[in-house]
Input
Amino acid sequence: MKSGARALGVAESYRAETSQFAGTVVRASRVTDGFVFGTATVGGRDATETVCEMVDRLAREDIRYLLVAGIAPAWFNILDLRRIHDHTDLPVVSVTFESSPGLEEAIREAFDDPDVVQDRLTTYRAQPERRPVPVNGETVYVRSVGLDDGTAADVVRAFTPEGGRPEPLRVARLAARGLVEVE
Output
């Protein structure tokens, strides 16, 4: 991958009813050259729109990939990767860092309203399956829309200089945590 290729990484952090989202534009050469911020409702249904709005506000045509940390930020505010891809016209790669049996049971336990549960499960089930990807001796779990499995794995590896966390997501997570600390 060329050193000037750019990815936008989006991660979040929350403490109360509002989740702080941070987006970081990082080159494959590890240079950070942009930030964007947004908010979503903890336990809400607005995370997908938040990510789309963040990309829109950046208005950068040089971003080639969109990486998101996980699929259920802000307490099961499920991201619809296909809607994000359709809106932004960017390949979308969701990266998680732990093996799990999936979120279906956790979603059922988190909400009392059967309609809320069904709505989240419908969105969750519509997403691509996670695939394990070895990166620097660690394993991450990847879902992607707009890229085949091999290319998505190559993108994750290209933006991960060490450890298992891609640099755009690592920096975005730090920025989101900083925003929460300021609150």
